[in-house]
Design brief:
The chain is mostly helical. Helix 2 runs parallel beside helix 7, helix 3 packs antiparallel against helix 5 and helix 5 packs antiparallel against helix 9.
Length: 370
Amino acid sequence: MSEAPENPLSPPPLSNSTAGILAFAAGAMLILPALDAGGVIDHFTLNLWGKYFCYALLALSVDLLWGWTGLLSLGQALFFALGGYMHGMYLMRMIGTQGQYHKPIPDFLVFLGWTDLPAFWKPFDQFTFAMAMVFFLPGILAFLFGWLAFRSRIKGVYFSILTQALTYAGALIFFRNNTLMGGNNGFTDFKEELGFALREPSTQRGLFVATAAALVGVVIFLRWLSGTKFGLVQRAIRDGENRTLFSGYATPAFKLFIFVIAGMIAAIGGALYVPQVGIINPSDMTPDKSLEAIVWVAVGGRGTLVGPILGAVAVNMLKSYATRAMPDLWLILLGGLFLLVVLFLPGGLVSLPEKIRGLWKKSIPATLPA
């Protein structure tokens, strides 16, 4: 009797690489703060790893679209920055009268001649409202843009160009002082979060733990999603959208849902990024930031859960070193790394062990038959 076929909708077995990244993030969540508290590593190092994990969330949002659905979005940095701005508005409200002008409104508004808070700023003294807006504003923007784009059957390079135009337009809007969002300087000089001083090492350790926990949660969610019927349709759209459409699936609705989810994941990364880095400004939503995220995913390996995280951490570690040691050559180095991966390692860093195993097998002469 033949064995029953495996259920295609059941979640795939947890690969060694995925289990490894979950164990790494979970271990880092506990070990790095303990090392920081014990003085083994400095606060800057812990803060730097928190930033890397925030970038990993942005990379996962890019890969959810590009690697798993075949949608190359060049605008994910916009959603990342919007999440940061929503959290930043709460942090700016928490400054109170501790600013340069000792007024109960942000200093940049005092500089622009305002004596009272604009109406849309007032609810942001509530943490829960700010966190709701971290999800709502990027989500509604992704929904509106995606609905218009997918309804019009825009795809391929045209979709990429439109997403790039979207993030460029967003940056131009936020650069303007009359947008009342800090203009070119954005938000900075934050003081506290939920009553805890942001400059205190214990607060930074708590933020790092929250970032690592968010990364683990997003990885688990995406792995679960990939094992559902929705995940199968998602990959079918990537491999052949027309065939999926002719099979009776409303592919625009599937793509719209994924675009909104990806925007929210990027926004989570941005919201966690702001209190750890201490600043958010329109330069964080310019098209070049989205292009950097594309490089992270390509270097790590798209279409995987591990690749985007590995690429985001590895490239930004390299950036941290290169911008100190050879700042004038960093962009050339980044471009060269991207070309190297595309030409010689299209599967990214996650495919490197398999490549090495293949070369090793080829180097061993075949055993002659007896």
